[in-house]
Description:
- The protein has helices spanning about 45-65, 70-85, 100-115, 125-130, 135-155, 160, 195-205, 210-215, 220-230, and strands spanning about 15-20, 25, 30-35, 35-40.
- By secondary structure, it is mainly α.
- It folds into two domains: about 40-135, no CATH class; about 140-230, no CATH class.
Amino acid sequence: MLACPKKFLNHPSLPASLTVNELPISFSPSVRSLGVTLDPTLSFQKHISNICKYAYLELRKISSVRHYLTTDATKTLVCSVVLSKIDYCNSLLAGLPKYLLDRLQRIQNNAARLVFKSSKYEHATPLLHSLHWLPITKRIEYKLSSLSFAVVSGSAPEYFSELLNLYTPSRQLRSAADTRLFRLPTVQTKTCGERSFAYQAPVTWNRLPLPLRHTDSLTTFKTNLKTHLFQRK
Length: 233
């Protein structure tokens, strides 16, 4: 799979196809890999459109039987069918423009209103708090931070660990916890650079409070992380 900046897509030097074993392979406007729709510029617009199409269809199905369900049953169903789709590989969405993430936020808002049988005009933020659902941007931060903790604790797969480098101070610091920071890589572009996991994970992890970064247990870390994200404005 090849991806490139948008400005190079129409460059005259870019061939119309690639040849592999003497067989021409044409470029595709999108490709699906492990359930994620990728486009040539990694904008994830089509991926988000696919999520929205699926989620709204499922919400309509749940809405049609909502009067038979309890609030708890509806919440469980929405989490299993809709939110799980939004959360799948959501660390890839870090750094996307706000207008794209807002599309996913509207789905979550509608899901919260469905759980409580609320009007479509009711403000969704109090409903999300009642359900203890993090908003979309913070769900992405939650995923990035959890993956970063796995790297720090040594439980992450090697292909994740290779992307992140722990900061090594030139002199001994007073607190060993101060070393639980990632070195921020130098990037050249906002798409393949600033939106990459190798960049977004250190940015997200390094701004967590020191006591949270120094947590030993993954379960405790996730609990405290969710509390921290809820309390942060």
